[in-house]
Predict the 3D structure of the following.
Amino acid sequence: MKWYTRRRRFVPGMVLLALITAAIFTGTAQAQSAARADTWTFSITPYLWMPNIDGTLNYSAYSGGGSPSVEVDNNPLESLEAALLISGEARRDRWSVFTDFIYLNFSNDSSSVKSINFGGSAVSSSANLATQSSLRGLVWTLGAGYAVLPGRPVALDAFGGLRYAGLEASTDWQLALDVTGPGGGQTFPSTGSISERMDLWNGIIGVRGLFWLGDSKWSIPYYLDVGTGSGWTWQGMLGIAYSFDWIDVKLVYRHLYFDQGSDNLIQDMRFSGPALGVTFRF
């Protein structure tokens, strides 16, 4: 299982490295002939994202004894309480600075207590009656990039930056019976609640851009980053876009992943779903 996990983490990084390497060699030939703009251009993109959340939360020890491990799998149409999502970019010549801000608040997500950790000894729990979790927080990404390929048919920026995530999770559980530790001295109650917060900081590198569909106004936007710091994170996006005179309309599928390992609150968490946005350029 360990080798599979490492391989799963290694693949996005290798794909990213290959894209950057290919872009640098291809872009060198075009760099001398690319037109240069001496003015700043800006864009702002409000968007709607309805991600499904799937992952595992490992809480600290409960006051009655034992640390619950909780699996979360939500339906965003039923559990989304509030959302604020917006991104922006400033660009001059080949250089750019961009940011992305996400605030999401989900409540009453379907969950299950899969095990209780009693000081290193985990006891499985399959007697869930009614367990629900809430998850809220913000994810902020900031990056600076350089246009290796500045135009058609492929626009590609290589970038570096950081990602912050401040996440707060809470779980209310109801089990069929109490769970007793292997030594008999600790008991995890059949009902209760627990909450915990964690701040994650990760440095990231990545690529982003457009594949233009011939000479038309249609394009395929793409994005990929990988990062580490407070664990491991990566994000990918792919979709379709249409450009008007001063706005772009985009429909994409987006996946955001965090992994802190089994000893932290966010053991692993995936945010996946379609996103619809409108970019205003000025």
Notes: The chain has one domain: 2-31+45-281. The two ends are 50 Å apart (CA to CA).
